[in-house]
What does this fold into?
Amino acid sequence: MAHDVEVLSGRARFVRALLSGYAVLIYVFLFAPIFLLVLFSFNANRYGTFPITGWTFKWYRAALSDYQVHDAVSTTIKVALQVTLISMVVGTAAAFPLVRSRLPGREGIRIILILPIMIPGLLIGVSLLVLFTSTFHWTLSPETAVIGQAVYTTPFVILLVAARLQGFDAALERAAADLGANSFQRLRRVVLPLIFPAILAGGLFAFTLSLDEFIITFFLIGGHNTLPIYIYTQIKFGITPEVNAVATMLLAGSLLLLALAFVLPQLFRKARRAGARLRAAS
Amino acid sequence: MSAQADTAAARRSGRRRGARIGSGLASYAGFVPAIVLLGLCFLVPLGIIVCYSFWETIDYEVVHHWTFSNYTYFFSVSAYVSTMWATLWVAVVATARYVPQRLRVPLLVLVIVPFWTSYLLRVYSWLTILGDQGVLNRFLQWAGITNHPLGVFLYDRPAVILVLVYLYFPFGALTLYSSIDRFDWNQLRAAMDLGASPAQAIFRILVPQIKPGIITAIIFVFIPILGEYLTPQIVGGTGGVMIGNLIVNFFQEAEYTRGAAVSLLIAGFIVVLLLIFRKSLSAKEAYGA
It folds into this structure.
């Protein structure tokens, strides 16, 4: 849209300046809170606010030596890994019939599969709580939280993998069939490698979502803490710089994973192409 | 759009005819894990909630006795009903706040990034701004406007709305962006060449064309806000309570059936919302086709 800049009246230019100013304000609005949070985690002031009385890592040291934080971190990672595994397997398996089969109720199934994204997590948490505690009489544990989170993350994997399957050139699979590959070989050698970037991205997606998930976990994890639950219980006692430090680390973790989710599939594709070129050359 | 859809469909059916190799029973099998997970752990519990909302809790035990009392109870306590209206109102205001705002989002990635930072942290970060020791109070005290921290910024409905706008802005902006991005801006200039005022051009040319985007944005923002628990819990205080908080309170007090009834009210609102906009949503497809 850069091409429509040249023929502007003075008034239009004014409007444009106004819009740009507005955009800057929006970005300040979006980033200031997070920025302050990170800033205060390095501030020596023990009230976690202005003025800045010096730069320090001591809040990070304090947070990292806190056994509750250790506990929360290990539970968070364990839960996230299980959620990732479940949603990758279940999501990928469901994406195939969703795109390929001609089930009569396919559209209905699609809506049901996507529904957990649409309805508030609160309802998922509440209804699973009732199912687990009153119907099954289970004790709440990190595993029950895993199930709840997987309900929420699996649809994202389904969507990502289904999109990839949809854009997939069927001729490749037919060619493999013509060359004598059986259906397992086609899946293993042709289809899976091609959709692997999407599965990987879906997995990282699920992992990131799981790291940050609050409300479903809050209902289902019982006496245990994940990092968000830990932060929540700490906030109740007021803001401390230690919490800011924990928060900053969680933030850095999820941003790193997000970056990976974008970069890894591309790297993977590049590596594959480079490998193919090498093989072709030799 | 339509041509793309057609060729995609043709390609798909072609593929199906050509390579029906993977179909048949094997392809049905893929649904099984998803049906086990989402059916057993999503649809079944929802069904239980529906039943619960019509049963009774007596002495912390759920009794299978059909009744509307959970609903009548909810509507009989004025505090609950006013919370319900407040939730709707908060949702409407928070949704309305940003919808007309973004006409162009130049640095799209920057909008997505906060969306991917932890939801809890984004709520929490506002405490460092609005709280007693927060940046805002610090600034006012430093500037000499007040000599003691003001409590007015937190623990009431405006704080809830502010934080909700902040939380759901990326949702709305992204949905709108995708539809505005397709808009041909020359049409606006053409309209103005033909004598339309800028406002006329925007409302009669731009808005009708991006209407599906606006509606999707409304749905994507309104629904999660209806189920919002954390924001009113952290920044809302007693003045900012929303339905989500009521539900959690009921469940924590083991009033399962009442909690279930309130949960279903949220679900009811969502269904109503989707029904209201169904026409517009299918119009979107008509427009695309």
Observations:
- Chain A has two domains: 7-41, 62-276.
- Chain A touches chain B through 90 residues (CB under 8 Å).
- Residues 241-281 of chain A form the longest helix (41 residues).
- The two ends of chain A are 46 Å apart (CA to CA).
